[in-house]
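Tokens for chain A. Residues wanted.
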């Protein structure tokens, strides 16, 4: 028959051995290598201005879709042999642009930069941001109309004032 002291020592040693095995198993990590390509997409206007806050940019690759404002930078897993076809899209101010990108195993670990030119032209104004040419034309027309209305108002006011003063100055009848 086994004495109780030995039984306690054996149970304690078995518990310590179990804890040591569990801790060792948790610390062992196996590296897994997945081939991938970093894809970076930026949107530019027709005259080369970056549309950082004004374009919706997205990337669609074989069930993997990502979208962002201004630019997209993401890592796409690729097959170890062969290639994967992706579509890059950009939309801004009612205009649209897209491009097909083919990622191959030879580009593994590299960064593929894609620039989409959206056919919208405009200018960057400090404090305002990117303003399309169509908006600039509308603002110019509105300012010209306001100036014409102010000039017509001033001419009418001068005529009214002249008539009022003429009534005050003319001799009594």
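Reply:
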């Amino acid at each position: 028959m086994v004495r109780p002291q030995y039984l306690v020592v054996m149970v304690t040693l078995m518990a310590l051995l179990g804890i040591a095995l569990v801790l060792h198993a948790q610390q062992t990590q196996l590296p897994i290598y997945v081939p991938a390509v970093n894809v970076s997409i930026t949107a530019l206007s027709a005259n080369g201005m970056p549309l950082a806050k004004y374009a919706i940019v997205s990337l669609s690759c074989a069930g993997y879709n990502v979208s962002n404002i201004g630019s997209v930078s993401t890592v796409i897993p690729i097959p170890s042999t062969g290639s994967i076809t992706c579509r890059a899209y950009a939309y801004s101010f009612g205009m649209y642009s897209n491009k097909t990108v083919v990622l191959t195993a030879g580009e593994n670990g590299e960064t593929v930069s894609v620039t989409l030119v959206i056919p919208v032209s405009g200018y960057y104004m400090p404090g305002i941001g990117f303003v399309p040419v169509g908006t600039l034309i509308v603002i110019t027309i509105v300012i010209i109309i306001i100036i014409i209305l102010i000039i017509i108002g001033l001419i009418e006011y001068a005529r009214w004032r002249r008539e009022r003063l003429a009534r005050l100055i003319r001799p009594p009848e």
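Residues 129-169 form one domain. Residues 59 and 66 are 5 Å apart (CA to CA).
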